[in-house]
Design brief:
By secondary structure, this protein is α+β, with helices and mostly antiparallel strands. It has a domain of about 110 residues: Hotdog Thioesterase (Thiol Ester Dehydrase, Chain A). It contains six helices and six strands; from the N terminus they run H-E-E-H-H-H-H-H-E-E-E-E. Strands 1, 2, 3, 4, 5 and 6 form a six-stranded antiparallel sheet that branches. The radius of gyration is 18 Å and the shape is elongated. The chain starts with 5 loop residues before the first helix and ends in a 7-residue tail after the last strand.
Length: about 160
């Protein structure tokens, strides 16, 4: 869904407003994230050792799954435009429910929880994000995420 104004967006509280495309989780992505975060845990980067581990193969980092909310959100483009800036404001709750095996595909389902005016043209947008794993019954992660968004709307449009 695309929204022209924050008022229009706010009319869809408690509704699913976006579903991202599927994203393949590759070993290269997991290795890059491990290097970036200085977290070379064997469950993520050692394919041979992981074969004998609790999942039977390497898995994505939970924080990688969380970080992927950013590109999923950009891809879906549901925030009204133009935007001056958007900041991560916080997370109310994050739960990792199912490990994401390397080689699997994930996508995000976004439900709008609230749109709260904070200052003129500034809003706190809270979403509940459920990252689904293809062919798995349980999601990888559910995260309630808050963004602080400043819009640069023309006069009369917020």
């Amino acid at each position: 869904m695309k929204f022209r104004t924050f008022e229009e967006l706010a009319a869809h509280v408690d509704e699913e407003i976006a579903v991202s495309d599927w994203l393949l989780i590759t070993q290269a992505r997991v290795n890059d994230f491990a290097r970036t975060t200085d977290d070379p845990d064997w469950m993520h980067v050692d394919e041979e050792r992981a074969k004998n581990g609790p999942v039977g193969q390497t898995i994505a980092q939970g924080f990688l799954t969380l970080a992927l909310l950013l590109p999923f959100t950009h891809q879906c483009g549901y925030l009204p435009q133009p935007i001056d800036y958007a900041f991560n404001y916080g997370l109310n709750r994050v739960r990792w429910l199912t490990p994401v095996k390397v080689g699997s595909r994930i996508r995000n389902h976004t439900v709008l929880k609230s749109v709260t005016p904070r200052a003129p043209g500034e809003f706190l947008v809270t979403t509940v994000n459920t990252v689904e794993i293809e062919k798995e019954a349980r999601p990888a992660m559910v995260a309630e995420w808050i963004g602080l968004v400043k819009c640069s709307a023309p006069p009369g449009r917020t």
